[in-house]
Amino acid sequence: MEHITLLLGIVIITALVFDFTNGFHDTANAMATTISTGALKPKTAVAMSAVLNLVGAFMSVEVAKTISKGLVNEEGIQPEVIFAALVGAILWNLVTWLVGLPSSSSHALMGGLVGAAVASAGLGAVNGGTLVTKVLLPAVAAPIVAGAAAMLAAKVTYKLGGNVGKKTSAKGYKAGQIASAGLVSLAHGTNDAQKTMGIITLALVAGGALAPGSNPPVWVIVSAGMAIAMGTYLGGWRIIRTLGTGLTDLQPQQGFAAQTSAASVILASSTLGFSLSTTHACSGAVMGAGLGRKGGVVRWSTATRMFIAWGLTLPAAAVVASGAELVMRTGDVGVAAVALFLIASCVAIWLISRRQVVDHSNVNDVQAAEEPGVVTTAMAAVTVPPTVAAEAAAEAVAGTTAAVTDEALKATIPAAAPTAPAAPAAAV
Questions:
Q1: Contact 23/188 with Cβ under 8 angstroms?
Q2: How far is the C-alpha of 260 from the C-alpha of 182, rounded, in Å?
Q3: By CB distance 3.0 to 4.6 Å, which of 125, 133, 240, 363 could disulfide with 121?
Q4: From residue 36, how far is each of 215, 246, 292 by CA, in Å?
């Protein structure tokens, strides 16, 4: 193993902690729909996802190369910069997990790395072309492509399965969901596990333990794969609830369409070396599948909160990382202060999460109905509410029935015969 200094060791451990949070933060991407439709038990689903994430980590290193060689210039980057980037990414992951929003762990890491690099060496430390073509453009394209593919797949699925019995169809698609969920987990390992491999490799280069341009060593691949697998097994139940039941209501056919579409997009991006957000791809696919069923709806208030979180991910992580980098310029005291801040923040977020526990036992509980949006309110203002119309119709029917009944009774019940006057009593 390469020569590892104390600071470099701290950076590597922090990177693996980020990988761990990435695992439980992104479990929902692979297993939320499978759990919500009942295709797999929650604990079985996360166990299967963990194993396949580990397998996927060994399948490619293209994304790791994008992180370690392409996004920032290796020259002049110090281990402190990598540490600051990880602090920003970890805190964003934990905050969004706490509120149950499926944001991008990948973009949190990218934002942290960019923010720390700029604070350390200026704008020239970031390769703008790589940032735009391999991070920002895929961030916009992934949910659109995956959503369109999932909506089309769901429509085709319902059309082809229209003549099949409901029970037989549901059983078959649940089996398909299990297979497609496994494919998403495998794809997640090929993409997200490599990001931590890339960041550790970059730290090793920055610390002088590896030559510039080196590929991730085997021990880095193994440790990153194990960390994300363990995080996946714990399950990010809060985000699984949001993606599985909070965004739309899915049937097995829709779950199968969503997972298959997302897996295809993720695997294609991994092959091309794009640092794609699996969260964006899977969330877009879920929304597309929700709209692919006749009568299906998307809860747009939840989707809007999710979109806002996506937009804030890169800048928020960048701001925290740049602040951490500035503090660490003071030397060992600054590094210790940032490390203590990270630990204290993680503990505080965990304690807050204990106030309302979400786990495998209640992950599928129905959430409170969302408030009506602007469009719904406007439509309600100009449309006779169904309940009012129904009540009016019922009253009209009741009134007509009452009138008919009265007339019928008058026509069918004979009137009483007139009583004859009594005869006068005979005189005695």
A1: no
A2: 10
A3: 125
A4: 39, 10, 17
